């Protein structure tokens, strides 16, 4: 059996066209030895959940700068659970007002990363969370 | 573990996705499920798509999948699985799998299943477990399996041993006629596609590729003498994948190649030689591991030390390890006499 690989989907739901943040995170996760599935701009929650299912990912990172996170994130979480993927570690990055963070975490998001977060922190959190849940 | 394979056969996409992960990780549970699925495999048309990075493989795969889902001739839609391989970093083992970016219009179609794979250190353009993943998708009942290789240069030709039909995708401006007659990737084409045929230089590229094809095609079934000689002449098709130009023509040639393989017996020949390769690879790995574990501790290391000190040659090491007498002196003298 080969070493267990962490598989992560990085997705950009909604209509904003700025994917630099998503690409920076994707690149950092790749450099940390993870397999990153990148799906590009303007994904619907349905597209994201479908890709997460087919790719059997351990984690989904959502990059949202449009302000629509309170609509998009719960929908993604709901679809993942409906598909039997409630175990998937969902994290959110982008422009998220401080006041919305508790509600997102309450819904089941595992972490929210604002601008200026070091990619090293994202990598460490993810590794710790996933390897703890599913050792080797 | 009956359940995973049963669930896959019953159409569970979650079970299928889990199974593919187990296969990729070479987990024994995946092997057990494959045992159950194997009798159901052997029906799908395995189509390889290979070519240089940026030639447009993913866009072409996207268009082909759409065409199989709604055939222009009004025939019933075929179900399609896509296996898209991208390279793993040789330094970190990480990978960025981006082929889905070009396949977004397939989203929401329950007759399509897309799986990205990292090459995980394999060099032939596929991952080591790609054949098993494709076999699982075949067993799961997909009609068509499109296998997209990593962006390939000249020697990533593993796909020729895996697929029934290989499409080699080129784009204008990739090199002169000497590039085109080098051995390797162009030789394995059953169908040659010049994508991005609306770009400057397309006419030149078409001319070069056409003259290369006219020089002759060795044919992939040259190995078994029983196989029919390659009456199949690889067609050259100009496409602009993002505008769907040339796709209907490409679909006709894919259909024609599948019919040709069935008619000529090539389908069976390729199936058998693929299974033989798979079995032999398994045998090699397993026998080596078993034999190594049967050796007394230290013997192998001692032989390696003798080898490195030039006390024995690799051939002598081999015979010593296998406990065989080396060739008789007379034979050795005879053979060295032949050499001098």
UniProtKB/TrEMBL annotation, chain A:
Gene3D superfamilies: Cobalamin-binding domain. Keywords: Cobalamin, Cobalt, Isomerase, Metal-binding. Residues 5-136 form the B12-binding domain. CDD domains: MM_CoA_mut_B12_BD. It comes from the Bacteria. Signal peptide: none annotated. GO terms for molecular function: cobalamin binding; isomerase activity; metal ion binding. InterPro entries: Acid_CoA_mut_C, Cobalamin-bd, Cobalamin-bd_sf. Its cofactor is adenosylcob(III)alamin. It holds the Pfam family B12-binding. PANTHER family: COENZYME B12-DEPENDENT MUTASE (PTHR48101:SF3), METHYLMALONYL-COA MUTASE, MITOCHONDRIAL-RELATED (PTHR48101). NCBIfam families: acid_CoA_mut_C. This is Cobalamin B12-binding domain-containing protein.
TrEMBL record, chain B:
This is Methylmalonyl Co-A mutase-associated GTPase MeaB. InterPro entries: GTPase/Isobutyryl-CoA_mutase, GTPase_ArgK, P-loop_NTPase. It comes from the Bacteria. It holds the Pfam family MeaB. Belongs to the SIMIBI class G3E GTPase family. ArgK/MeaB subfamily. Keywords: Chaperone, GTP-binding, Hydrolase, Nucleotide-binding. One of its GO terms (molecular function) is GTPase activity.
């Amino acid at each position: 059996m080969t070493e267990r690989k962490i598989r992560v989907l990085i997705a950009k739901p909604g209509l904003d066209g700025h994917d630099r943040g998503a690409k920076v995170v994707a690149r950092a996760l790749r450099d940390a030895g993870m397999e990153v599935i990148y799906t590009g701009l303007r994904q619907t929650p349905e597209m994201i959940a479908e890709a997460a299912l087919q790719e059997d990912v351990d984690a989904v990172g959502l990059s949202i700068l449009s302000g629509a996170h309170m609509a998009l994130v719960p929908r993604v979480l709901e679809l993942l659970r409906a598909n039997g993927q409630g175990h998937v570690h969902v994290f959110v990055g982008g422009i998220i007002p401080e006041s919305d963070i508790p509600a997102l975490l309450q819904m089941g998001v595992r972490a929210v990363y604002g601008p200026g977060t070091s990619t090293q922190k994202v990598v460490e959190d993810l590794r710790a969370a996933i390897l703890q849940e599913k050792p080797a | 573990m009956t359940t995973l394979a049963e669930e896959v056969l019953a159409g569970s996409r979650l079970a299928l996705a889990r199974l593919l992960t187990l296969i990729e990780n070479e987990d024994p549970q995946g092997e057990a499920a494959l045992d159950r699925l194997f009798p159901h495999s052997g029906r799908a048309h395995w189509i390889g798509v290979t070519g240089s990075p940026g030639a447009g493989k993913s866009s072409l795969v996207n268009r082909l999948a759409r065409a199989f889902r709604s055939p222009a001739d009004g025939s019933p839609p075929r179900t399609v699985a896509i296996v898209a391989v991208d390279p793993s970093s040789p330094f970190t083992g990480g990978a960025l799998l981006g082929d889905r970016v070009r396949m977004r219009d397939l989203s929401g179609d329950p007759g399509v299943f897309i799986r990205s794979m990292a090459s995980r250190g394999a060099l032939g353009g596929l991952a080591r477990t790609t054949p098993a993943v494709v076999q699982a998708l075949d067993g799961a009942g997909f009609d068509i399996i499109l296998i997209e290789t990593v962006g390939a240069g000249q020697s990533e030709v593993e796909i020729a041993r895996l697929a029934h039909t290989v499409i080699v995708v080129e784009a204008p401006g990739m090199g002169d006629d000497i590039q085109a007659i080098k051995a390797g990737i162009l030789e394995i084409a059953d169908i040659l596609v010049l994508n991005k045929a609306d770009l400057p230089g397309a006419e030149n590229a078409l001319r070069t590729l056409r003259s290369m094809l006219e020089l002759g095609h060795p044919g992939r079934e040259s190995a078994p003498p029983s196989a029919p000689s390659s009456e199949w002449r690889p067609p050259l098709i100009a496409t602009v994948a993002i505008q769907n130009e040339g796709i209907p023509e490409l679909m006709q040639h894919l259909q024609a190649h599948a019919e040709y393989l069935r008619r000529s017996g090539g389908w069976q020949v390729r199936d058998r030689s693929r299974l033989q390769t798979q079995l032999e690879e398994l045998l090699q790995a397993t026998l080596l591991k078993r034999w190594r574990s049967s050796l007394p501790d230290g013997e192998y290391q001692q032989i390696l030390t003798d080898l490195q000190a030039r006390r024995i040659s690799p051939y002598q090491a081999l015979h010593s390890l296998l406990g065989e007498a080396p060739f008789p002196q007379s034979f050795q003298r005879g053979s060295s006499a032949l050499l001098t």
